[in-house]
């Protein structure tokens, strides 16, 4: 008779390690291929997505990307948690492929993507580890985008403003308004300085407006058109004026202003690159497509000058794009760093589609019991 050897019982510590390893592997696979959680840190999509919203982004809609940077600690992005140490090595870089998805990126989708351009003074990262942004897709490859007096046109067709989209207004009144008043109307964010003498004040900016009869107080605010209409009906509101940049006035920092006289409210027309489309190479096309060819088309040797492009040492007269691109804008049109400023988003930078908000915390609420925005929990993103 042979005696069976009894297995040694697994120690509690080993069981915990096995469970932890399984959980990390499972969470990593879910994060890479199905769904990933994000938080909204800035007000560029308000009031549709608010600072303090926590949302889930589907990678199934457009198809998950295979990892470009495989040497990375699980469940990290650029740094090891709580440190300034990199969480990855770029010693190995793989071609990125996209798995089949339910659909492609469509106009008006709310999309999470890796921020494409290199920021001066900051470390550049591989494409799949660049910082994340969330914006609304205004144009897909092949579309022609134009903004006229804040109104967006796609292929010459006027587009509806997103529900709850915000822009800048100058509220003129002879009353001194406090934070409590503006919170009542959901005006709660920091915005750019108004021109002229002003007093910095959060959440809006206040300055004196000289008139022939008396001195009014002006507040530059970001809000929706519906809220602007409400404020106009108040007896002591003397004016509620939209702040729109005039057409033909070149704005510093706007994409393509080395050649074109564009600003945030009057932009284009500009064609969005599409895979297979060929463009001529000249000063006007280089101003808007030169950086695309140089940075995102995965070419070995590219030199871009204001009037010519060289690939592998040869000057080219035309160029055919190797992938699709997208034009993104924030719903808070005067408070968004988007494609009007830095150009197109390449297809291989698309992360996924924002699908719903699962938690929302008001970062400026004074009382603890008012911190959670209960009406936003599990709300679908449109």
Structural class designation: alpha+beta
What would the average pLDDT be, to the nearest integer?
A: 86
The CA-CA distance between the termini, in Å, is: 72 Å
Number of strands: 21
Give the overall form: flat
How would you characterize this protein structure?
The chain is α+β, with helices and mostly antiparallel strands and 382 residues long. Helix content is 14%, strand content 28%. Strands 1, 2, 3, 4, 18, 19, 20 and 21 form an eight-stranded antiparallel sheet that branches. A four-stranded antiparallel sheet has the order 7-6-5-12, with no helix packed on it. Strands 9-10-8-11 form a four-stranded antiparallel sheet.
Keywords:
3 domains, Umud Fragment, subunit A, 382 residues, four-stranded antiparallel β-sheet, eight-stranded antiparallel β-sheet, flat, alpha+beta
Offer a quick outline of the entry.
With 382 residues, the protein is α+β, with helices and mostly antiparallel strands. Helices cover 14% and strands 28% of the residues. It is flat.
Task: Outline the fold blueprint.
Blueprint: H1 12-33, E1 35-39, E2 53-58, E3 110-114, E4 132-139, E5 144-148, E6 151-154, E7 157-158, E8 166-173, H2 179-184, E9 205-210, E10 215-224, H3 225-232, E11 237-242, E12 267-271, E13 278-280, H4 283-295, E14 302-305, E15 308-311, E16 314-315, E17 318-320, E18 325-329, H5 339-342, E19 345-346, E20 350-360, E21 379-380
Antiparallel strand pairs: 1-2, 2-20, 3-4, 3-20, 4-18, 5-6, 5-12, 6-7, 8-10, 8-11, 9-10, 13-17, 14-15, 15-16, 18-19, 20-21
